[in-house]
Every structure is written in C-alpha cells, then in structure tokens.
Amino acid sequence: MLDRLDLRAHGFDGVHWAAGAARIGDDAVHLGEDVADLGVCLDHGAPAQLVLVPTGSGESRRITNDAINHVSAKFLPDGRRVVFAGTEPGQGLRIYAQDVEGGKPRAVTPEGVESSSYAVSSDGKRLAAVSRDGRTAIYPMEGGAGEAPHGVEAGEVPVCWSRDGRSLYVRTLNPPPIRISRVDLSTGARELWKEIIPSDTSGLVGVFHLYAVPEAGAYAYSYGRVLSELYLAEGIE
C-alpha cells in the first residue's frame, strides 16, 4: 500500500488527491463522496508520465504513455478526468485534458502557458491559466480562445474558483506578503481574502505552491529559504 508520506521513495512526485471534502486542494473540495480515493502524480521517466496512485490498497496505474513530458496534473471535479501541463516534442507548454481511463489527451490552451498556476471551475467547464503574455486568461475546457477576466490585474495568477463559479481567487507573486483576492468575474469587484507571509522570513526566497479552499477558510503553501553563515578568517598570510 502506498501512503502519502512514502510516494517520493517509490519514484512519484507532485501528488494531487482526488476525493474527500476535508482535503486542501484547489479542486478536491468539490468532489462527491462516491469518487475513488486516488492521487494523480508524475513518474520520473523521460518523458515523465501520469500515474494514478490509491491511498489504500490497490495498485498504481499509469494513465499516459505518450511523447508528452508531463509537468504537473490535477483532477477535474468529476474525478474521471485530469488536466495537466506538458510539452510535446518541439512545442511549447500547454494545458491538456484527459480521461483517467486512457485515450488521447486534448489540448485546452495554446502553447506558452505557465505550468504551475492553473485552476478548473467547480463545474469543470472553465480553466483559468497564465497565458503567454503573463496575464491570467479563462479558457473553455472544450477548447477555444481565452478571455481576460474582468478585474484581474497584471502580475496576479489564479489560485482557485469559488464554489458557485462566479468568482476567481488570484494571488500576487513574490516577494511576500502574498495577497489572495477574490474577484467577481461579472463586475470586476475585488476583496482581499488572505495575506500570507511565513512566520520566519530569514533567507526567504519566495512562496511557491499555494492551495486554498476559501469556503472552508483553509489554505496551504510551501516556501523556500536560503540560509548561510559568514566566517571571518584572520591571520592569513
């Protein structure tokens, strides 16, 4: 049995868990209780592929076997599909959607989007991602041109959608404090939801992966620090 703490030892990374309303994750909070308790993660192949990993008994199962180098992945709210960032040979990075039972991936965005900041609406019909020009855009999951969301400012990236799909939560980038704002997509009205800064900022280089479940008042993030010591040498000739 693979546990959440030993996945790295088995060659997996970047796990996004599917089910359970209490979990912190930008899509997982919206899943029903009938969805299997699975994680989607990356193996370390060349190119990297997607693997489904059960949290209980059962075998892990690769769901892709193609020429795409998969960079990150998340479940869609229905638990039957995933969205992932990846690159095909000779092409730029884009976001794809794929059924967990297999089949061909389908491109959702054009080339040039960012791999770390994208979020799917709770109805699974819209994807917010950072486009080639560095601004957030909203793409239909069935394919089509992206549109700039009303009220999202330059330099902000998507974190998650509100459960009713009317608002998008966005965050500022480094340096901290990181501000997470709720933007009403119909009016462009904004309100600050959270301001995040690690308690110890010594050697802080940035706040990275950030997940939030605003309806539960919960969030989680990782950050990096570089710490060093300065030595004084005397009497050197």
Query: Helix-strand pattern, N to C?
Result: EEEEEEEEEEEEEEEEE
Q: Count the strands? A: 17
**CATH fold-level name:** Neuraminidase
CATH hierarchy, class: Mainly Beta
Number of domains: 1
Helix content: under 10%
Radius of gyration: 19 Å
Structural class: mainly beta
Distance between the ends:
61 Å
Largest sheet: 4 strands, antiparallel
Overall average residue pLDDT: 83
Note poorly predicted spans: 1-36
Proportion of strand residues: 35-45%
In CATH, what is the homologous superfamily?
TolB, C-terminal domain
Q: Specify the number of helices.
A: 0
Q: What is the approximate shape? A: globular
**Strands of the biggest beta sheet: in what spatial order?**
1-2-3-4
Under the CATH scheme, the architecture is: 6 Propeller
Describe the structure.
This protein is mainly β and 237 residues long. It contains no helices and 17 strands. It has a single domain (8-225), classed as 6 Propeller (Neuraminidase). Helices cover 0% and strands 41% of the residues. It has a four-stranded antiparallel β-sheet with strand order 1-2-3-4, with no helix packed on it. Strand 9 and strand 10 (126-130) form a beta hairpin. The radius of gyration is 19 Å and the shape is globular.
How are the secondary structure elements laid out?
Layout: E1 13-17, E2 38-42, E3 50-54, E4 61-62, E5 69-75, E6 81-87, E7 94-99, E8 106-107, E9 118-120, E10 126-130, E11 136-140, E12 156-161, E13 167-172, E14 178-184, E15 190-196, E16 204-213, E17 218-225
Antiparallel strand pairs: 1-2, 2-3, 3-4, 5-6, 6-7, 7-8, 9-10, 10-11, 12-13, 13-14, 14-15, 16-17
